[in-house]
Design brief:
With 323 residues, the protein is an alpha/beta fold. It contains twelve helices and ten strands. An eight-stranded parallel barrel has the order 3-4-5-6-7-8-9-10. A two-stranded antiparallel sheet has the order 1-2.
Length: 323
């Protein structure tokens, strides 16, 4: 497993990271603690050293904490990132509110303390705000609290999880120099971060965590027009109406253009996200041992060629299935 620097933090992260949302069971049908722990152990055994979770991910932090406690040395060498959700409902955490209503310093501290108890750790390596509006820059007491938490050794780095499909809605804060990392949607279809955010992160030494590299499964080839998800699984909403048919059309055009089989799509999507050095790591949700092995193997795969990247650049597809 190859590693990269997380910006200027001095932290080194595996190129493939473990996205732990699916361990929480709240949105993904079929998850359970035991299988989640097995999958996470297998990922760590294969060299993954970075785990991303959040307070909002139901039981995820608890499952991550259990797995780490079962590791030799309590998971020494494994970096854990978590997120603080807004104090108000996430649908209301938008422009027009004062940051003290959304992320007051006392809320950050309380949320982190809960995370530490769930994880069974005395610190997290990266604390992120789970949403952000750039108009909050320079306002509120949250930044003072972040500084205090760093001084106390409870967090090593601080970042923002950028709003879905709004990669420029963090540039003002980024340019103040207070950010250590950003987390952003980046994949073959969603290439907008490369316009401004990724160059700015490189300029300011900010680490980049890529999320949704497989577009919630669309870029694995498993989403066809006839796809059906278990009742209660949130993907029924994400891939509603004619969206699966749209995905099938775009995926078929992509694999035809590249001349690859559909079984090669997931690996291609991850290698696209890791092309160059713009991203520090790509976090991927994986609850089965098979998917863990498939995704970890990307670290040993050759990089995409310049010609392949040129072809993939043409498959940019502006959409927002989260809306």
């Amino acid at each position: 497993m190859r590693h990269r620097d997380l910006g200027r933090t001095g932290l080194s992260v595996s190129e493939i990271g473990y996205g732990a949302w699916g361990l929480g069971q709240g949105a993904w049908v079929g998850a359970d603690d035991d299988s989640g722990v097995r999958a996470l152990h297998h990922a760590l055994d294969l060299g993954l050293t970075f785990i991303d979770t959040a307070r909002a991910y139901d039981r995820s932090e608890r499952v991550v904490g259990r797995a780490l406690r079962e590791r030799p040395g309590g998971g020494d060498g494994v970096l854990v990132a978590t997120k603080v959700g807004p104090k108000v409902p996430v649908s209301l955490a938008s422009s027009g509110l004062h940051p003290d209503e959304v992320f007051p310093g006392s809320h950050l501290r309380e949320s982190l303390e809960t995370s530490l108890r769930e994880l069974g750790r005395d610190h997290v390596d990266l604390l992120q705000l789970h949403t952000w509006e750039d108009e909050w820059t320079g306002r509120g007491d949250w930044l003072e609290t972040v500084g205090a938490l760093k001084q106390e050794g409870k967090i090593r780095a601080f970042g923002i999880s950028v709003k879905d499909h709004q990669p420029e809605n963090v540039l003002t804060l980024l340019r103040t120099g207070v950010l250590d990392a950003v987390q952003v949607i980046y994949n073959i279809f969603e290439q907008a971060p490369s316009d401004a955010l990724l160059p700015a992160c490189e300029e300011y030494g900010v680490g980049v965590i890529g999320r949704v590299a497989l577009d919630e499964g669309a870029l694995t080839g498993s989403v066809r027009a006839s796809v059906a998800f278990p009742e209660g699984d949130w993907r029924n909403w994400y891939f509603r109406d004619d969206r699966p048919a749209q995905v099938e059309e775009h995926v078929d055009a992509l694999i035809t253009d590249l001349g690859i089989g559909i079984d090669e799509l997931a690996s291609t999507a991850l290698r696209f996200a890791l092309a160059g050095q713009a991203l520090s790591t790509v976090i991927v949700g994986m609850r089965s041992l098979t998917n863990v092995e498939r995704n970890a193997a990307v670290a040993d795969a050759p990089p995409l060629t310049g010609h392949e990247l040129e072809l993939l650049a043409k498959h940019r597809w502006p959409k927002n299935f989260y809306s």
